[in-house]
Amino acid sequence: MMAVRREAYDVIIVGAGLAGLYTALQLxxxxxxxxxxxxxxxxxxxxxxxxxxxxxxGEADDSEKHFADTMACGHFANDPGAVRVxxxxxxxxxxxxxxxxxxxxxxxxxxxLGLEGAHAVARILRMGxxxxxxxxxxxxERVLERDNIAHYDHAYVYRLISTGECCAGVEALIEDAQxxxxxxxxxxxxxxxxQLYSNTTNAIGIEGTGIAMGIxxxxxxxxxxxxxxxxxxxxxxxxxESRHFLISEAVxxxxxxxxxxxxxxxxxxxxxxxxxxxxxxxxxxxxxxIEHQSLGYVYLDATHLDERFFxxxxxxxxxxxxxxxxxxxxxxxxxxxxMHYYMGGLKTDLxxxxxxxxxxxxxxxxxxxxxxxxxxASNSLLEALVFGRRTARAISGDSLRVDDLKWIALREVPYFxxxxxxxxxWMTRNMGVVKNFDAISDMKERLEAALxxxxxxxxxxxxxxxxxxxxxxMREMLKKMIExxxxxxx
Length: 490
Ligand SMILES: Cc1cc2nc3c(=O)[nH]c(=O)nc-3n(C[C@H](O)[C@H](O)[C@H](O)COP(=O)(O)OP(=O)(O)OC[C@H]3O[C@@H](n4cnc5c(N)ncnc54)[C@H](O)[C@@H]3O)c2cc1C
Hints:
The protein has helices at 18-26, 45-48, 63-73, 80-88, 90-99, 131-145, 209-216, 249-253, 279-291, 307-313, 315-323, 380-396, 420-430, 437-452, 462-489, and strands at 5-8, 11-14, 33-36, 53-54, 106-107, 110-111, 124-125, 149-152, 155-162, 167-174, 177-182, 185-188, 221-222, 227-234, 257-259, 298-301, 333-342, 345-347, 359-361, 366-367, 413-415, 456-458. The chain is α/β, with parallel strands linked by helices. It has 3 domains: 5-196 and 199-226 and 343-396, FAD/NAD(P)-binding domain; 232-339, Succinate dehydrogenase/fumarate reductase flavoprotein, catalytic domain (Flavocytochrome C3, Chain A, domain 1, Alpha-Beta Complex); 413-489. The N and C termini lie far apart (55 Å). The model has no long low-confidence stretch (mean pLDDT 94). Strand 5 and strand 6 form a beta hairpin. The structure holds flavin-adenine dinucleotide.
């Protein structure tokens, strides 16, 4: 058997979204850092972010108000200590990325702040509707300037190397070859789970592998049943890069309203904040409307906006709608709720530390406790910044060293007779805005049986590894879903 190539670093970061890149930049120049990602920076949810970064920076705002909105939106299931850190450390992290060259929209009166759902005031720092793309590109320029940071951007990481007491590195496939990367500190910044669903706004490849690897290594998780569905994914374009294009909440922030097939503005009777109610409330209302009408979507009506304004304020959305044959200033946009954000993940403390020594988690794959049961819009990019910086500080202060550790490369992986596409379709049907508990119980049994008795074992290859991770993660999510249902019934 061919020897597996091995490299050693001080810190390995898995993921090149905002959480991964910002954590890397916050680490000292004396550390040798490797970023591993499955795709380049365009294949991240960070790159797709439209709305912006929630920050209490305007005159009418303060961190107390941001704290109150975050807690209320999360149904008060948030960790108040984590929320306090999030809102209090927002501005200092914004100043740091501005130092990296990021310039938010502003005029002579100050920042142009956007308004989004469940925010009491306008507090979203933005750049048009392409905030994620612009911020990430700027940070990546800074990463490329650093001699101490290397990046492999076609590396599929599939296993944590653990001594049992601490994490010591990762295994990855690069161009189908198995590779070993050793380091005393490993940061998972692998993002959420959106691509477990066929109706999602998430980038391709964002399917929860990091969380599944953590589960496999026995790392503690939290919030695994907490899924956020965005109310306004563009209907009918689900073959566009395997995801639904997102019509940002900021469009509703500019006054757009939701209408059913009879043109009724149905949110008026549902919540005092109407279309700007929290996402779970709006998604549920849309789901209910669709159940009782003939159309499989509702309309987002932004026709009150002047076309020039729309084009300037939302250039990406405008272009996408036009490519789809819709002029949003003249025609209503068909929308449906889509899987969007995962509140669950690997449980961390306020410094990104997981329950396995040497393993950190940052960004959407982590569970810091800031989001509770429902994330407040534009708090996730902020979370990546605030907790990325804290994680970098914790790593710099850690004395753990992995010297000549014994490691064994994974020789074989199980494979199953379940296709990824069929699992995605199942999630969409049964684990959507409304849950089908009969199907969930049945699928949990099937997944357990599959893991117990896989169809066989083969040399590590991307397809088998991906299916393995999906099955591990789904089984855990479904198990927790049933446990929670049972607890609520008692
Ligand atoms: C369309 C859209 C719009 C959004 N708009 C906003 C917004 O305006 N404001 C806001 O706060 N939030 C927004 N969000 C949410 C926010 O973008 C994400 O929560 C955040 O960007 C997650 O950042 P991250 O760095 O944790 O993960 P990501 O940016 O998703 O990056 C994950 C990285 O991990 C890599 N990866 C994953 N698995 C593996 C593996 N096995 N091996 C190697 N690499 C791997 C990926 O290749 C990628 O590089 C939006 C999300 C979407 C989908």
